[in-house]
Amino acid sequence: MSEIILYDLPSRGKSACWSLNPWKARAALNYKGLPYRTEWTEYPDLEPKFKSLSIPPNDPNISKFDYSSPAVKLPDGSYVMESLRIATALDKLQPDPPLFSNDKETIDRAQTAVLGVQGAISAIVIPRVPELLLGERSAEYFNHTRAKRFGMSLEELAKSANVSEAWEKAAPHLKELNEILMEKEGKFVLGEKVSFADFVIAGFWAFVRKVDKEGDVEGRVYVYPSFKGHWEACRGWFERDD
């Protein structure tokens, strides 16, 4: 099988995967053992590069941005953007081992819960992305676009953070994640069978590790024993990060 190209966002220094959405697609590739290479693409280069490749823009119901990471070039020369669409395409390309069953509702629940936690603690973690992770060009782009989204600079956003209130708002979403993980007996969302919903959640665990400062985020996310157990069960598919 021809090599797949994964378009991912580089980190500062030696590039390594850090962002939640690319992690979902990368974990799916790692899980299936498909050959791929990463083409690191800075934030401001995503739109011109993907337009030049004739990739259609995102559905506005899925993303605030017309073009986003991840995207892949498949062995047949076609391109797919957005992690769920990529995982679906990979399942068609190589059905075994499968990533999907009758679990769309579970994936939606997992996505909603993860986004709920992220939204609640955004003033804490979002300013850390350019501070800790991005090179100069991507950091400048990130600061500009997120300042427009939040109506203030990321420096101001960080100062506005009410930490205790943020974690109170995150609590019901963390509780929902725990309920999702506890519904079936086994290490994964569906029990003993890995599914894309696991990578939705474990991608969040991986992101949390990148924006943590001395346990101030990771320590408050892992409020349920099921969370660390789930990360340990999934972490093998998150070892290859380049």
TrEMBL record:
Residue ranges occupied by any Glutathione S-transferase UstS-like C-terminal domain in the UniProt entry: 117-216
Domain (GST N-terminal) ranges: 18-92
Pfam families for this protein: GST_C_7, GST_N_2
The protein's name: GST N-terminal domain-containing protein
Record lineage: Eukaryota, Fungi, Dikarya, Ascomycota, Pezizomycotina
